[in-house]
Amino acid sequence: MARLQLNKSSLAKHTRALKSYKRFLPSLDLKRQQLLAERAHAYRILDELKSEEEALYHFVKTQLPMLSNSDIDISNLIAIEDITVAEENVVGIKLPSLKHIAFSAPSYSFLAKPHWVDNYCLQLKKTVTATIKIALQKQRINRLEEAVATITQRVNLFEQVLIPQAEHNIKRIRIFLSDEQMVAVVRAKIAKKKVLDQTSSLSNPIDSAEGML
After folding, report:
1. What are the domain boundaries of the chain?
2. Is the dihedral of CA 167, 172, 175, 177 positive or negative?
3. Is-above-0.70 flag for pTM?
4. How many other C-beta atoms lie within 10 A of the C-beta of residue 116?
5. Rounded to the nearest 10 degrees, what angle do helices 8-63 and 116-157 cross at?
6. How confident is the model at residue 66 (pLDDT cuts 50, 70, 90)?
7. In whole angstroms, what is the distance from residue 167 CA to residue 159 CA?
8. Is 1.10.287.3240 the CATH classification of the domain at 25-159?
9. Mean of the pLDDT values across residues 142-161?
């Protein structure tokens, strides 16, 4: 660590740095508050999506009990044909967002399948969509958690290290310069007194000579 220079130039440097830190800190803290709010919102959405998924499972379980009939083939009824995940900028953080999902379904004879299969396919699409949204929402939360941790470290750096250190350095330099100024004043007074004494002695040579007898 570089040794602290106790001079006016160093004082000006640390004073400018302190002003910069104090000017930048509020914007950092504001962004942290925004990220914390966005993270809390993301968790609420995740809870809603999980509730939606549970509700879908409950609906299928209670409204479509015939699914337990192993004689009816309900495999490969749908498939994900296309899925589009985009990124949106939230408080400067890129977060994934589901933009589009398309399903394909093989055609089957209405006579070969019971009437409730169509409803099951619809609920299955909703459930798959909810599951994908949950996975993406977890990714959003992970990125927000990382962003919150990073900016919290920066805020703590300013609050607990940079600003206190700059204030401490400024205080040390000012005390040193004040002491130096005081010493200089004392030296100047002593020098002035010596000059006055010498001048007084030279202006009264007879008194000086008599003082020597």
Report:
1. 25-159
2. negative
3. yes
4. 15
5. 160
6. confident
7. 11
8. yes
9. 96
